[in-house]
Amino acid sequence: MNKKDLRVIKTQNILYTTLLDLMKEKTFEEIKVSDICNHALINRSTFYAHYNDKYELLAEFIQELKNALTSELKKNKNISNTKEYYLEMIRLFLDHIEEKRESYLAIMIHNRNSITMDIIYDVLDHDITSHLQQDNSLDENKIPRSIIAKFYIGAVVNVGMEWLKSNSKYMKEDLMEYFSLLIPDELN
């Protein structure tokens, strides 16, 4: 595996930060490559040495968010109890949102980027579906796995986004307590 040059990493991080800063002020569609370059104090040639356009920059940044969320959710292993699994998944998701708060605010709240929402749904769907496939106690005839997955994805993402938008109206610990009351001990 080739390591990236530190200068490349530094430039990419500056461009990510700059894009997020600009997305707090205006929509992604309104942002021009020249705006990014001026704000980041780099030449256009430097930008184009790394990206073909602003869409490629955004796509790479979103992919980085996806990788970080996937990595976080992988920490939720070896939990057999259904309720414990979901509570830990939710805690990891909320921790991830909290850690990347500025990124999610810029992309999902200020710009309503549906691609990011789709990616979050996909990552959570993969994680939940994988867990459900390992759950031998689940009666597929009673509730199909795909319905269970969509139910929890919707709840987790919507509460997570409400928490993000509400700017600390709810404490994370309170949300975890609410989820604990809402999630049954077993699905059967």
- Extended strand count: 0
The secondary-structure class comes to: mainly alpha
Give the count of helical stretches: 9
What is the general shape? elongated
In whole angstroms, how far apart are the ends? 46 Å
The helix-strand sequence is: HHHHHHHHH
**Quaternary structure:** single chain
Biggest sheet, in brief? none
Mean pLDDT: 86
Helix-strand blueprint:
Layout: H1 6-25, H2 33-40, H3 44-50, H4 54-73, H5 82-99, H6 101-109, H7 114-134, H8 145-166, H9 172-182
Helix pairs in contact: 1-2, 1-6, 4-5, 4-7, 5-8, 5-9, 7-8
Walk me through what this model shows.
α1 crosses α2, α4 packs parallel to α7 (about 115-135) and α5 (about 80-100) runs antiparallel to α9 (about 170-180). By secondary structure, this protein is an all-alpha fold. About 70% of the residues lie in helices and about 0% in strands. The model has no long low-confidence stretch (mean pLDDT about 85). It contains nine helices and no strands. The protein is elongated, with a radius of gyration of 19 Å.
